[in-house]
Write a structure and sequence with these properties.
This protein has helices spanning about 20-30, 45-55, 70-75, 95-105, 115-160, 175-185, 210-215, 220-235, 260-275, 305-320, 330-340, and strands at about 5, 10, 10-15, 35-40, 55-60, 85-90, 110, 190, 195, 200-205, 240-245, 250-255, 280, 285, 290-300, 330. By secondary structure, it is an alpha/beta fold. The chain has 2 domains: about 5-140, 3-Layer(aba) Sandwich (Rossmann fold), CATH 3.40.50; about 175-340, Reverse transcriptase/Diguanylate cyclase domain (Alpha-Beta Plaits). A hairpin with a 2-residue loop joins strand 8 (about 190) and strand 9. Bound molecules: magnesium ion (MG).
Length: about 350
């Protein structure tokens, strides 16, 4: 590749100087080297041209009216499109402190006036090499950012998969472990003047005599039953309910914002959604499936840890099994709440 080219493209140089003779001499000498050159006679014009011309390298005079070279440099380096452009500052000053000021503004190189043309050409060649590396680095960074974004999307997908039960498509126990503490912490919490919600109802459900299904029809049919059960429940739960496969044939339904006076009807509606319509597991096999439900309620007056609330629901489920299955029972604390609010509007 020729020194005046970058990826086969002629390198572009912008000269900004308020002195006509300097502009003309530099333009001529650099065009002789086969560079593509544009000129601007002040800083403001230089910035406008730079944004359109997108130069690989800028040679800019320090002492100019309106906008001096340092200010031009700062604006160029603050522009995300141009910040990799190699910037040479032309100066008549040679004091070290001035160079520090120039470097602080972001200048990459200095050239002293009067300009030695051979030195200028050498510095331009070196500057263009660095400019090219800057652009490559920028392109690589952009690619890396894109890869990072794709990785983030993939991670989110993996996380959601790790929260899902593969067989039923329900949320899994890990998801419940993560969400329940957060949901319980919001009970009775105010957002301004509004309370998020005052109650959370949790139903622990279990398929009645599920072992018999597996024993009589095999595990494949047992799996079908769980899949149909999950679908039937998902189709019948409230919009503010989340359904989790807790383990085996146990399913947990968490409902935020449900009033205690409605929880019995809700539990009954879920029980009936399963019991009233047999499961057609194959062309010639229908199974009458029932579930037992144990309910517990957390309220702003009765805070529970996730473990205690699940335990309350589990005890109620045990009671439902004890009372003959295919029924809904509540923890004693939940029953009290339900009675207190019965008939309330
Ligand atoms: Mg000047």
């Amino acid at each position: 590749m020729l020194p005046n080219q970058d990826s086969g493209q002629i390198c572009k140089i912008l000269i900004i100087d308020d002195e006509l003779t300097t502009r003309l001499i530099l333009k001529k000498k650099l065009e002789d080297e086969q560079y593509q050159v544009q000129v601007a006679n002040n800083g403001q014009e230089g910035i406008v041209i730079a944004q359109k011309f997108d130069p690989d390298l800028i040679i800019c005079d320090w002492m100019m009216p309106l906008l001096n070279g340092l200010e031009v440099c700062q604006k160029i380096k603050a522009d995300p499109q141009l910040d990799g452009t190699f910037f040479i500052l032309l100066t008549g000053r040679e004091e070290v402190s001035d160079r520090v000021t120039g470097l602080d503004s972001g200048a990459d190189e200095f050239l002293c006036k009067p300009i030695d043309i051979n030195e200028l050409k050498a510095r331009v060649r070196a500057g263009l090499r660095i400019s090219r590396l800057n652009r490559q680095l920028k392109a690589t960074n952009e690619k890396l950012n894109l890869v990072n974004k794709q990785l983030n999307v993939r991670n989110e997908l993996l996380q959601s998969l790790s929260m899902t039960d593969a067989m039923t498509g329900l949320l899994n126990r890990r998801a419940l472990d993560q969400s329940l503490p957060h949901l319980l912490a919001q009970v009775g919490k105010r957002d301004g003047y509004q309370i998020h919600y005052r109650y959370i109802c949790i139903f622990m459900m279990d398929v009645d005599y599920f072992k018999r299904v597996n024993d009589n029809y095999g595990h494949k049919i047992g799996d079908y039953v769980l899949k149909f059960l999950a679908q039937r429940l998902q189709a019948n739960v409230r919009p503010n309910s989340s359904v989790y496969r807790y383990g085996g044939e146990e399913i947990v339904c968490v409902t935020q914002g449900i009033h205690p006076k409605n929880v019995l009807d809700y539990g009954e509606s879920l029980r009936k959604a399963i019991a009233d319509y047999p499961f057609k597991v194959s062309a010639d096999l229908q199974l009458a499936i029932t579930i037992s439900l144990g309910g517990a309620i957390a309220s702003d007056a009765h805070a529970f840890t996730p473990h205690d609330l699940l335990h309350q629901a589990d005890l109620a489920l045990y009671q439902a099994k004890h009372d003959g299955r295919n029924c809904v029972r509540f923890s004693s604390q939940a029953e009290l709440l339900i009675k207190t609010h019965a008939g309330s509007s």
